[in-house]
Design a protein that fits this description.
Elements (H helix, E strand, L loop, with lengths): L12 E2 L2 E2 L4 E7 L5 H8 L9 E7 L2 H10 L4 E5 H9 L8 E6 L5 E6 H10 L2 H6 L6 E4 L5 H12 L9 E4 L5 H6 L5 E5 L2 H7 L3 E6 H4 L6 E6 H6 L1 H18 L4 H9 L9 H5 L29 H13 L9 H8 L2 H10 L25 H5 L7
Parallel strand pairs: 3-4, 3-5, 8-9, 8-10
Antiparallel strand pairs: 1-2, 5-12, 6-12, 7-10, 7-11
Helix pairs in contact: 1-11, 11-16, 14-15
């Protein structure tokens, strides 16, 4: 089936203790960055850690949220910002959540309708291009508190466009984005691959920028679960992180991106042409948006550590856009959600290094954010905000 040898199976135990649960149901949405879950399942990386994985494709991020909250999923590939939204009770029942690890960085893009992309090329600025529409533009993202909403709002605002007052923002599940663009219901969108690549391939839109231009090497999808799952199943949670770290490490191996693209093309995962998935899996990005960075899954573990200050950034953006009132406990909330000690223990077992120090993000508008930045000052520092 593949060129890699799966790990030998073992009993339902880990060096850190007997597993509380050995069969896990993991949710995902049809996106290229679900690759770690698919690799973990098809190569049975979980067997070496006492786990059997069952993958369950979900139609939308709202479905992922609902099934995590209900306990129908043990854990999921999900949007970083979704987890923080659920923690605060935004758009659904408040539930204490846990981020176990970061699954990938980068790999998302901004695609415009052909008409708007032409106008941008002709006029040079997004604001001037939007003015040619003669109406309020419509942009799509994938979940109200999700990463794509935050990237879209930041990208628009950095170019002098108020995303709440001057743009209509709508939520569309990733697999439905291209059809909405083809039906001319959208002027632009922010979504993960392979849907930007498909829009270009079908000739209904053009990628003009990458989310890595908003925040270089930003965290994107995370492995998340309810916090009571971690409390009840700490050894299982560690084993799951070990399994996913093995999968992320495998994805960095020679030829493995092409191999996972072939698997992701199967109907039960993404179900589109393998070439569209593979097109933006490596370092090659389209000439129309040359400034982007490729999706990263491992890089010797630099990708995966769940830095609390990165999670707290989403809280500052919730405040910026009026989703929450200003509060002074963003760092504490992030420390509770991001399971750094559990991650460190799991990483040590599979010989994955934890980054020695956090890397300060580089934002497109020159903003500065790191673990010592006062959250309130950062959230209020933007000229465009609610």
């Amino acid at each position: 089936m593949n060129s890699a040898s799966p790990p030998a199976s073992s009993s339902a135990a880990s060096p850190l203790g007997q597993l509380e649960k050995t069969h896990l149901r993991l949710g995902f949405v049809a996106l290229s960055d679900a690759a770690p879950l698919v690799a973990a399942k098809l190569l049975e990386f979980g067997h070496a850690h006492g786990l059997t994985l069952e993958l369950s494709r979900q139609p939308s991020w709202a479905a992922v949220r609902d099934k995590l909250i209900a306990g129908d999923l043990d854990a999921a590939h999900t949007l970083y910002g979704l987890v923080y939204g659920v923690q605060l009770g935004l758009g659904g029942p408040q539930t204490d959540m846990a981020v176990l690890m970061v699954l990938n960085r980068n790999g998302q893009a901004f695609t415009l309708s052909n008409r708007l992309a032409d106008a941008l090329a002709a006029h040079g600025t997004l604001r001037q291009a939007l003015a040619t529409l003669g109406r309020k533009p419509v942009f799509a993202q994938t979940f109200p508190t999700g990463t794509h909403a935050m990237w879209l709002y930041y990208w628009l605002a950095a170019q002098g466009v108020d995303p709440l007052r001057e743009v209509e923002s709508v939520v569309i599940p990733p697999p439905q984005m291209v059809a909405a663009l083809a039906e001319e219901r959208l002027d632009g969108l922010c979504v993960g691959e392979p849907w930007n690549a498909m829009a270009e391939a079908k000739g209904v839109g053009r990628t003009v920028a990458y989310t890595s231009e908003v925040w270089s090497d930003h965290p994107e999808k995370v492995l998340a679960c309810r916090r009571d799952f971690v409390s009840a199943n700490p050894n299982t949670a560690r084993a799951l992180v070990q399994t996913m770290l093995e999968a992320c490490r495998w994805l960095d191996g020679p030829g493995h991106r092409s191999e996972i693209a072939r698997w992701l093309a199967r109907p039960e995962y993404i179900g589109i042409d393998q070439a569209l998935i593979a097109a933006r899996f490596g370092d090659a990005l389209p000439a129309s948006a040359p400034r982007g960075l490729p999706v990263r899954f491992f890089d010797e573990g630099a990708v995966n550590y769940p830095q609390p200050f990165e999670g707290a950034w989403f809280l500052t953006q919730f405040e910026r856009w009026g989703m929450i009132d200003a509060r002074g406990d963003y760092a504490q909330i992030a420390e509770q959600i991001n399971q750094t000690q559990l991650y460190r223990e799991a990483a040590a077992q599979v010989k994955v290094a934890v980054p020695a120090q956090a890397t300060a993000p580089v934002f497109m508008d020159g903003a500065h954010w790191n673990s010592s930045t006062p959250a309130a000052a950062f959230a209020q520092s933007f000229a465009i905000r609610r």
